[in-house]
Design a protein that fits this description.
About 50% of the residues lie in helices and about 10% in strands. It has helices at about 60-105, 110-120, 125-135, 145-175, 220-235, 255-265, 270-280, 285-295, 300-305, 310-325, 345-360; strands at about 35, 50, 55-60, 190, 200, 205-215, 240-245, 335, 340.
Length: about 375
């Protein structure tokens, strides 16, 4: 099984890209607390590192400004290092097992064994090729079967040979009771406040997942489906906090965030949240007003809140600032008990992370 760290890689994002970079003119943001992350090595906090007409930046301000991104870089390095170590371990184990299997079968080496396996899986019937072609005609630009039959057959043979080799390796590993005791890396935990944002799940749940998302981001819609599955699979064990991070190039995202917050003012945040994600291609102001009616809101009160939105914009801006300070640059982004998971990861990745965390906590 892959380690937890393998699921927390930061730079191979499955998510909406970051908004344009913003300069801050040396104005420091609030400090990010990162349990397990070492302090940046540098001079005293009041040491001036940059000056300009009318202003300056100290090392302490620079540390606050850069910490979120530097933590992401550290996590990425730790993940990649762990993957490299595990790859080296598995390659060594696989080579030893395959060499032993080759010797037992009376062939010269693992390479010779691979050739044997390939020969045993080098045949595909015309019926199998035809069935694959019928199911994947668009891949072959709807060319006649006779014209692409060789390409189809060759592709199926390569797939069959690859699967057979992988199955042999897995069989040998299972038979040899392979155990890997290399401890996963200790990843930095970024303390992100729940604030007063909407929460799904019990307050006593041992695993808190704080999500920063954009209603118009297609990857966030995928993440929404995954998070529903998480909550259904781990009742009482997980709670889900939603924080707004609308991206500037999504023209409907801010309106959707305001609409949901205004529904929350009447105790129906999640009803609006779910309805918007379930109908992501229909997010005009008229659509949002229709959704408000569908979930039974006081239409006049919701409309006033939506139109006179200063308080809602302030709350959304606070979420965006909090996310940026924690290293969020795109959506969706999750903090699972402080562990940063970037992008629309599949349910299996979340399951692995949650199971590891529950085991760590003895829950």
């Amino acid at each position: 099984m892959r380690s937890l760290s393998a699921f927390l890689t930061m730079f191979l994002l499955l998510g909406c890209p970051p908004p344009a970079e913003k300069t801050t003119g040396g104005q420091a943001r609030g400090q990010v607390q990162a349990g397990g992350a070492p302090a940046l090595v540098g001079p005293a906090p009041d040491t001036v590192v940059a000056t300009w007409t009318g202003g300056q930046m100290t090392w302490g301000e620079l540390e606050q400004e850069a910490r979120g991104r530097l933590i992401r870089m550290e996590v990425s390095y730790l993940n990649e290092r762990d993957e490299a170590l595990r790859s080296a371990i598995n390659n060594t184990i696989n080579k030893a097992l395959l060499d032993a299997e080759a010797k037992q079968r009376g062939v010269a080496s693992a390479d010779a064994l691979r050739e044997q396996v390939q020969k045993e899986n080098a045949t595909v019937t015309d019926a199998e090729a035809r069935a694959f072609y019928d199911a994947n005609q668009k891949r072959y630009r709807n060319k006649p079967f006779e014209e692409v039959q060789k390409a189809v057959t060759d592709a199926l043979v390569r797939t069959r040979q690859k699967e057979a080799w992988a199955a042999l390796v897995e069989q040998l590993r299972a038979r040899s009771d392979v155990q890997i005791s290399l401890a996963p890396p200790e990843l930095p935990r970024i303390e992100v406040p729940v604030d007063d944002d909407p929460v799904r799940g019990e307050a006593s749940a041992p695993v808190t997942i704080i999500e920063f998302a954009d209603y118009e981001c297609p990857y966030c819609a995928r993440g929404y489906q995954t998070m529903k599955q998480v909550m259904e699979t781990y009742p009482g064990k997980t709670r889900w906090v939603y924080r707004d991070f609308p991206l500037s190039f999504h023209r409907n995202a801010m309106n959707a965030a305001v609409a949901s917050n205004c529904a929350g003012a009447q105790g129906k945040y999640w009803e609006m949240h779910d309805l918007i994600f379930d109908n992501q291609k229909a997010m005009t102001e008229a659509d949002l007003e229709t959704y408000a009616g569908q979930i039974g809101l006081d239409a006049a009160a919701w409309k006033t809140c939506y139109t006179e939105r200063e308080a809602q914009l302030k709350e959304i801006a606070a979420d965006q600032t909090s996310g940026s300070e924690a290293g969020v640059t795109g959506t969706p982004a999750y903090f699972l008990n402080g562990l940063f998971i970037s992008g629309a990861r599949p349910f299996e990745d979340f399951k692995a992370a949650i199971d590891t965390e529950l085991e760590r906590l003895g829950k």
